[in-house]
Amino acid sequence: MSRLFGVKVFEGWVNGTTVVYSDPALNGQLGSADAIRFQVNPEDVQGTAPVALTVYFQCSGDGLNWENNAAILNAATVTAGTAVFGSSSSTTMPMSQGRVALSCEAAKRVYVKAWATGRSN
């Protein structure tokens, strides 16, 4: 597998159950990879511990209708300063566009920096 890209896909607050997304300018690049590995760094966590973070890789053919391709983190307990890692599903082929969707629990906040490394078969 050869590496196609390594890019920061998100930096900011994830507030409760409100879903936030990676920059739309990255959708084509994220959709170009056969496999993607993710690193998520929770920099600050606010709310009663533990805090569960959910991160999905989503794909789309038209950039309007999105499907959850893989749960990168599914309600994973996170702490500030401890990186967590995950991968896109190798059984579900991504479409021409991809994005990262992040959310956490109600009444909790996480400041996140997230990176993606895409590879081709």
Describe the structure.
- Helix content is 4%, strand content 61%.
- It is mainly beta.
- The strands form two sheets. Strands 1-8-3-6 form a four-stranded antiparallel β-sheet, with no helix packed on it. It has a four-stranded antiparallel β-sheet with strand order 2-7-4-5.
- A hairpin with a 6-residue loop joins strand 4 and strand 5 (67-78).
Give the SSE map:
Elements: E1 2-15, E2 20-21, H1 27-31, E3 35-46, E4 51-60, E5 67-78, E6 84-87, E7 97-104, E8 109-120
Antiparallel strand pairs: 1-8, 2-7, 3-6, 3-8, 4-5, 4-7
- In the sheet with the most strands, the strands line up as 1-8-3-6
- Percent helix, as a range, is under 10%
Mean of residue pLDDT values: 91
Q: What is the straight-line distance between the termini?
A: 5 Å
Give the H and E element order.
EEHEEEEEE
Task: Please tell me how large the radius of gyration is.
Answer: 14 Å
Strand-pairing-aware structural class: mainly beta
Shape: globular
How much strand?
A: over 45%
The main pleated sheet reads as: 4 strands, antiparallel
Number of helices: 1
Segments where pLDDT lies below 50 for 5+ residues?
none
Q: Got a strand count?
A: 8
